[in-house]
Amino acid sequence: MSFTSLIFLFLFFPIAIIIHTFAPKKFKNKVLLILSLFFYSWGDPRYLFLILLSIIVTWFGVKRMNLIRNRREEAKFYMVCLIVINVAILGFFKYYGFLIDNVNFITRMNLKIIDLALPFGISFYTFKIISYIVDVYTKRCEPQRNISDFALYITIFPQIGAGPIVQYADMQHELLNRNVTIDKFGKGVEKFVIGLGKKVLIANNMALIWAQVKDIPDLKMSVLTAWIGIIAFTLQIYFDFSGYSDMAIGTGYMLGFKWAENFNYPYISKSATEFWRRWHISLGNWFKRYIYFPLGGSKCSKLENFRNIFIVWMTTGLWHGANWNFVIWGLYFGFIIYFEKVKFGKILSKANKKVQVLYCLFIVVIGWVMFDMNGISQILKFYGNMFIIGANGVVDGTSLYLIKISWRLFLPAIIGSTPYVFGMMDKIKYRFGKKGYFCISIFYIFIVILSVASLLGESYSPFLYFKF
């Protein structure tokens, strides 16, 4: 079930909020767990057993690990086994086909691949499970005594599809003690509406432009057409994923939870390093805490630090998808971030801020080509179109047509990817008081009406990160 489906918006979501709001405090978690399991099993109930199996094995395993925590080697063995079990499940469903393809390519064998659907949200809930195992082992938090409360942490419906990946230690208190105030509920509604508008009004339309460009044969694509297409995808993926995160965080507020922001205007970053501090913040924090720091982080030799960054970014690429383009994309950013860290960052910091932002945007846009194109040959061909090699001229009729029909979408999208819009809204609230709040409320109602009207007239468009 998607946040932008009419069934969710007009049936499941209002019913879930009403039931949770009026449920007695001692039953709120159980009610929310039932709702979350229903939400999870809506599209493909076959994998409900799989996620419940992971929850049960992890909960009992961590309980046992905690009982023997004074016997450190034995407890560590339990921790490693639990992590291996959960990673193995993720690896089988996500990388089985990728592994067989590569074995067939290397050995010239013809092993058959069983077509397995990727369990909904498995990349996200597996990382949440790992955070729980490690946090209990390192005594960052105590194990959850109630298995249903632990199951709620793993399956809570706003996060299960595409995050944010909230670590257990950051959520354990609110699982048992949370309050829904009018202010918190209102902030949640506001956040949800913003996310809905980002996804439906901007991301979905940017996706149409990018799809048009990708359908053009390589030898018939001009330089400007290629750049229009990849800029459309650059905006699409930001508004799609940040839109989902806003809707998830907003829903959390309405349920009494307060989750940290997952995006902080990444396209105004002045370096690739800063970009990844602002993009998918919860994933970046997860990799730092559970992979980068345990490997030694930056408190080691330059060679070891390079190794640590290499491992983190190769893993980041693989986490996003079972394809070599994701691995290349991850290593691409790993090399750039290391290069900025050891040398180029100091030179870059002395440049004009606009130059720094343009540098970062160029690096990121080049990276998105690797991210979305399937296969090295397609990536190289598209780069050729972007940089004149093999392109059908610099400008053609298609590129002029795309500019004519889409500039009204590109302009608000570019402005909306900066802090300008929400900064202006805060000024209106501060300067005009109740009248300002009233005007902004009308603006949000307008977004909802436009979004619903758009959803009624278009085919289903899932969030991009659902496939990861």
UniProtKB/TrEMBL annotation:
<feature type="transmembrane region" description="Helical">
    <location>
        <begin position="45"/>
        <end position="65"/>
    </location>
</feature>
<feature type="transmembrane region" description="Helical">
    <location>
        <begin position="309"/>
        <end position="335"/>
    </location>
</feature>
<dbReference type="InterPro" id="IPR024194">
    <property type="entry name" value="Ac/AlaTfrase_AlgI/DltB"/>
</dbReference>
<keyword id="KW-1003">Cell membrane</keyword>
<dbReference type="Pfam" id="PF03062">
    <property type="entry name" value="MBOAT"/>
</dbReference>
<comment type="similarity">
    <text>Belongs to the membrane-bound acyltransferase family.</text>
</comment>
<feature type="transmembrane region" description="Helical">
    <location>
        <begin position="77"/>
        <end position="96"/>
    </location>
</feature>
<feature type="transmembrane region" description="Helical">
    <location>
        <begin position="409"/>
        <end position="425"/>
    </location>
</feature>
<dbReference type="InterPro" id="IPR028362">
    <property type="entry name" value="AlgI"/>
</dbReference>
<feature type="transmembrane region" description="Helical">
    <location>
        <begin position="221"/>
        <end position="239"/>
    </location>
</feature>
<keyword id="KW-0808">Transferase</keyword>
<keyword id="KW-0012">Acyltransferase</keyword>
<feature type="transmembrane region" description="Helical">
    <location>
        <begin position="116"/>
        <end position="138"/>
    </location>
</feature>
<feature type="transmembrane region" description="Helical">
    <location>
        <begin position="437"/>
        <end position="457"/>
    </location>
</feature>
<keyword id="KW-0472">Membrane</keyword>
<feature type="transmembrane region" description="Helical">
    <location>
        <begin position="355"/>
        <end position="371"/>
    </location>
</feature>
<keyword id="KW-1133">Transmembrane helix</keyword>
<keyword id="KW-0812">Transmembrane</keyword>
<protein>
    <submittedName>
        <fullName>MBOAT family protein</fullName>
    </submittedName>
</protein>
<dbReference type="InterPro" id="IPR004299">
    <property type="entry name" value="MBOAT_fam"/>
</dbReference>
<dbReference type="InterPro" id="IPR051085">
    <property type="entry name" value="MB_O-acyltransferase"/>
</dbReference>
